[in-house]
From TrEMBL:
InterPro entries: DddI (IPR025680)
Name this protein carries in UniProt: Immunity protein Imm1
Species annotation: Saccharothrix ecbatanensis
Pfam entry (one): Imm1
Length: 142
């Protein structure tokens, strides 16, 4: 499942929030096309086949993972968080720095091509695990 927001052009005002199941590679491609629109926020992916876990501090039951996906200036960005670590892609060195609408920071060199982003999201859709088609590094490493 993917969730993202459209903004009123030139503002930070939310126009609409969207949620969609990505059931095929074609739907993943359409989703990445939507992320490339200038007034679209980053998205959060959640795989419904992954286990739920109980938060040890709040007692709330929720997902065991958090995947942030975005598109900026021709590059796709992904942060994959699970019970092991927070990871970002080792990307194209020419990809620019990007800050999400909630101020998450992706340093230069962490973006990938649209084709790689599509393949990565599709692999996650099929396997429900951290995609293996890219190299990952701990988010604190940049």
């Amino acid at each position: 499942m993917a969730t993202w927001t459209d903004f009123v052009p030139g503002t930070e005002w939310e126009r609409a929030t969207h949620e969609v199941e990505l059931a095929s590679r074609a739907e993943v491609r359409e989703f990445v096309d939507l992320l490339a629109w200038p007034n679209t926020s980053e998205a959060v992916l959640m795989h419904t086949a992954r286990p739920l876990r109980t938060n040890e501090f709040t007692g709330e039951v929720g997902s065991d993972h958090h995947v942030v996906v975005g598109f900026f200036k021709g590059f796709g960005y992904v942060e994959y968080t699970d019970t092991d670590q927070v990871s970002r892609i080792v990307g194209d060195l020419s990809s620019p720095e990007w800050r999400t609408t909630v101020s998450d920071h992706f340093p230069p060199g962490t973006g990938v091509s649209p084709a790689t982003l599509i393949a990565l999201i599709d692999e996650f859709r099929v396997t429900a695990t951290r995609p293996t088609i890219v190299q990952w590094r701990h988010a604190s490493a940049g």
